[in-house]
Amino acid sequence: MGIKGLQGFVATVCPDVCRMVDLREMAEKHRIDHPDFPPVIVVDAMSCVKYWYTPESWVCGGQWREYLAILEDFIKAFMAAGIKLVFYFDGVVEEKKRNEWIKRRFQNNKEIARIFQFIKTHRKQPGRGMFVFPSALPTFTRFALKSLGQKTVCTLQEADFEVAAYGLEHNCIGILGQDSDYLIYNTCPYFSIEKLRLDRLVTLMYSREHLCHALGLSLAHLPLFACLLGNDVVPERLLEGFWDKCLVTSPHKNNSYSRRANVILAVANYISKVPCSYNSLKHLKEMLPLGSDKTLLYRGVQSYLLPGQQSPWIPPNVTNCQTFSLQEQTAICQDKEIFQVAKEQHIRSENYTIFNILSSGETECSNSLEDECDTEIPGQALIYRPARQHIYSVLLESGKGGACPLVKEWFVYFGNPLQQPELIQPVQPSVPGGTPNLKTLWFAKGPDVEKQRYSTFLACFHLQDGMEELQALEAPVAAFCCLLAYLMMQVSSLSLEDLNAFVAVILCLKGKSAAQLAGLQLAQVDSRAVHLGAVFVRGLTTLLLANSACGFPFRMDDLMPWEMFDGKLFQEKYQQSHRRCSLEELLEGNESLYAPFHNMKSFICKACVAKKRTIQSRPRGDGFITGTQQREFNPRFQQAHRSSFVAPYHNPMRGFLWRNPQPQGKK
């Protein structure tokens, strides 16, 4: 979170703290000073994502091929200067940050509600001022960077600590991000992603030394300074009285400054007069209304100490060597081999959410672009919960006797107050021959085991009977069919027109470049299609979770959105389908796609009929949703996904996008 207002304070009150630097020149100087070590910048990826996502369209579900091309250009600019990048992503939400996380989720809900109201009123995307991330953007950014050959790290604790520690340990030329905490850590220089000019590789560099000079402090003061302004450890609400006392005695009060700027100056003035010692910290504790937890200040200061560092505010026999042995001792998974592999894959960004479940039994999912007024489409968290329950069962081996632990979920959806985690019961999937144990799925080799991995994956989505047909397809297409069939089974309001739109997207996407997709213009934006796009993309993260749990029957690269989805293209196909356009128009006049189109529908319809689910034709024309009445929360939705079905197609899957393409006559 950083220190509220500190970066703005620097820009307005003491601009000498930062200066423009040329990263090429800094890299060259590093090469001269350290000829055996290439220049490295460590990137706080989570604070950069909003600056990386620059495609014009952001509400429709994500312009994934455009985004991938942007990331590639970003990497190439640094490579051309001989600078190596190392990307860090938050791998956990720490308990101390849960309340702040929840607060932000409710704020995001309000922002998303305003976005949908704008779309319904104006039938177009709002301006960039209302920008929110496309659903699951940070998750897929991580895999995108990895697919582009970059070192990508998923953290075991708060990312800013690990970023600062890596920068210090590896003598990096700097940290690239947008988080004022990097002004506090005693580590390598801090560069602004917001001010980065990629074409010239110049940006603002912030100087801790100059900040200290401007405030009359030393580097040793900065961790306490951060705590007394309020941070992730010490809440601001406990400090209001202390700030008022500081303001009374401050000689720097300036009526032209904001209250926050005056508070920052007053707190710095107060600290500058306090001797740097543990006894001073003990005295300070007595002044603050810290309630029952008198260790807050101590823990807050300690949280900024990187490995090997000490502070005059902390007794010299205490160091901040943060280890994860406790995490291992209290882990739900007591198999050390499984736990270690999950941890290593997590750090290397090779799996998705698995380590969090095996270590703490806890997982979370942030906001999605979902319309809380659309009563026909349940929250994605509820749609994919039955699949997650099966995945949890595979991971925690719920059928192997003994009590199976419940999984704590913090998932955002309409009606969830997020006052505590929901406790989710693992449910065994119906795997032919029984669910293999985790060691078999993860470590065993041979064709029989590969078949077990695939069938276990499919069983998580109630598609174990479709294994032979799916295995004949190209991997991204098989994964797409799996997800779409599950979605059609779960959500009774989805129509044949919706199905047609989704199928047309993956078929027409093939061969389209990022530039072609960027050039696609929409006459209008449909709010229901925005909602469905977000639900589909969240479904892709459920595929990632299942794939990680089942020992990777698919390559993770085959489950990425740029392989099977584009937001604007889906909007176009959705609107065409609901206007009852011809198949020729829907498939852009490409007759070679007709048979694959019908065959994909055939498979999905057959899967639905097996679950007694009826997919009906419900064309909406241009009848955009404009209602604002909120839905009534139905906590029993997860039980209400079994309806009936009549399949309109029975074509076999022959001839459709085989792994080894065969000549195919026109049909």
From TrEMBL:
Superkingdom, taxonomy of origin: Eukaryota
Gene3D superfamilies for the chain: 5'-nuclease
Keyword Zinc assigned: no
InterPro entries attached to this UniProt entry: Coact_PPARg, PIN-like_dom_sf
Entry keyword set: Activator, Differentiation, Nucleus, Transcription, Transcription regulation
GO CC, any one term: nucleus
GO biological process: fat cell differentiation; peroxisome proliferator activated receptor signaling pathway
Subcellular location: Nucleus
Chain's role: Functions as a transactivator of PPARG and ESR1. Functions in adipogenesis through PPARG activation.
Family recorded in the similarity comment: Belongs to the constitutive coactivator of PPAR-gamma family.
Known partners and oligomeric status: Interacts with ESR1 and RXRA. Interacts with PPARG; in a ligand-independent manner.
Protein name as annotated: Constitutive coactivator of peroxisome proliferator-activated receptor gamma
Upper taxonomic lineage: Eukaryota, Metazoa, Chordata, Craniata, Vertebrata
